[in-house]
Amino acid sequence: QSVIRVSFHDRRLQYSEQQQLEGWRWSRPGDRILDIDIPLSVGILEPQIHPTLLNTVEFLWDPCRRTSVFVQVHCISTEFTLRKNGGEKGVPFRLQIDTFGTGGKGDPPEHLHSASCLVKVFKPKGADRKQKTDREKVEKQPPPEREKFQPSYESTVLTEVG
């Protein structure tokens, strides 16, 4: 069983996460922050979407079969910044997946693995603009400095959580 959750990366926002999520729920009644895109996902069983946990989804999967899960984040990074006059930087989110084995009778599930990545979510035009300016910023760096930047990937790469 795996549980995917979107939370705040910034420590100061983590302290007020519940209030931030309640404010979001109030301003967007009936919407969710995180969903599983079932048609695009492969090999997942029993996807569960909790009505009260807007930023969490879970599912079962067979580790012996090819599995991929596509998720949709329905809020943008600037929804949690103080409104100015446009051009807000946006807050980074942490997308984390925790995987558990099945516990024995009466035993809690065994934690097997956790991995996460940082994501920023923008509207399509904003995302295109951000990618362009980031790419230009990296290209202007001298070659030794360029190596410090993470390369682009076609799909999301998660890093093991220690």
Main traits of this protein?
4 helices, 162 residues, 22% helix, alpha+beta, two-stranded antiparallel ribbon, six-stranded antiparallel β-sheet
In short:
Helices cover 22% and strands 28% of the residues.
Note down, in words, how this protein is organized.
- Pfam families: CP2.
- Residues 125-149 have a biased composition (Basic and acidic residues).
- Keywords: DNA-binding, Nucleus.
- The strands form 2 sheets. This protein has a 6-stranded antiparallel β-sheet with strand order 3-4-1-6-7-8. Strands 2-5 form a two-stranded antiparallel sheet.
- It has helices at residues 11-15, 17-27, 124-139, 143-146; strands at residues 2-8, 34-36, 44-49, 56-61, 71-73, 93-101, 110-119, 159-160.
- It has 162 residues and is α+β, with helices and mostly antiparallel strands.
- It has one domain (2-122, 154-160).
- The mean pLDDT is 83.
- Helices cover 22% and strands 28% of the residues.
Structurally, the number of domains stands at 1
Q: Give the biggest sheet.
A: 6 strands, antiparallel
Question: Distance between the terminal alpha carbons, to the nearest Å?
Answer: 19 Å
Helix content: 10-25%
What is the beta-strand fraction? 25-35%
**Tally of extended strands?**
8
Low-confidence runs (pLDDT<50, min 5 residues)?
Answer: none
Q: Report strand order across the widest sheet.
A: 3-4-1-6-7-8
How many DSSP helices?
Answer: 4
The computed structural class is alpha+beta
Rg computed from alpha carbons, rounded to a whole number of angstroms: 18 Å
Rounded mean pLDDT score: 83
Shape: globular
